Amino acid sequence: MSGTSTHAEMPHRVLGRTGEQVSAIGLGGWHLSLSHVEERLSLRIVRTAIDRGITFMDNSWDYNEGASELRMGKALRDGYRDRVFLMTKVDGRSKTAAARQLDESLRRLGTDRIDLVQHHEILRYEDPHRIFDEEGANAALVEARQAGKLRYIGFTGHKDPHIHLYTLELARAKGFRFDTVQMPLNVMDAHFRSFEKLVLPELVRQNIGVLGMKSMGGGVLLKSGAVTPVECLRYALSLPTSVVITGIDKLQHLDQAVDVASGFTPMSNDERTEILARTADFAATGAFELFKTSSIFDATAKHPEWLGDEPKWVREAMA
After folding, report:
1. Are 207 and 173 in contact (CB under 8 A)?
2. Checking CA distances to 208, which of 37, 242, 295, 315 falls within 20 to 30 Å?
3. pLDDT digits over 7-21, tens only?
């Protein structure tokens, strides 16, 4: 794959127009503080991942009420912080809420600068309007970038590729260009409301860093029995991604991800055709991509207070 280099066990890829080199596999932050994952294990997972060449660290202000950032911050002490490309996300749509959440993330992660901060869960058509309002969240991130608190800005979402395209369109109208975009990329996405077919070509065209997530759909894809974890990872890595972020709650899962990446060869056309045919019926209605077809994964829908105040023009219109 173009733009790929190898660092010990782990291939590295270029993060879009930023020119940054990041590991082809990224470590998801959500799993680090699940109820069955003890803190000692989570710290070992992070440090072992770094020692094996994984440099891209994913997290979010809201993951497990901040526990995921706190644990990652502990793991990145003793020189590990300088070895990674650190990303987190904020939910705030207002400038005030986003700035507050960013400062909390900096404190939890134990750093004075985060490499990439992303607007989290852009799920609704009104979300880009809120972040690009004069007093919206993007103004907070741009100011934070100028102050040296962060380096790059992106956005994430898992609901509908058309909302991603609309966000890119509105950003362009506002004279802003995102550095990265995070979205589901998996073998079933190709069949239903597809980010791969609709958004991925646009990101490649604009040279925006592609962050793939939900390669196994939070484990739900595997319940179909149609694909294996290794096939899921290999399919996502065969797309023009900068990094494929995967949740790891066991050292065995870390070994699996590193093994797939270190011995990676892109799927051939015949392999891709076969796996798409095998998953077509399972994927046709989105039944195994619950992040698209249900609200289970929509944390901001459950906690609208995280978003902050509506823009001033909205409040005035409702007065």
Report:
1. no
2. 295
3. 557 999 999 999 999
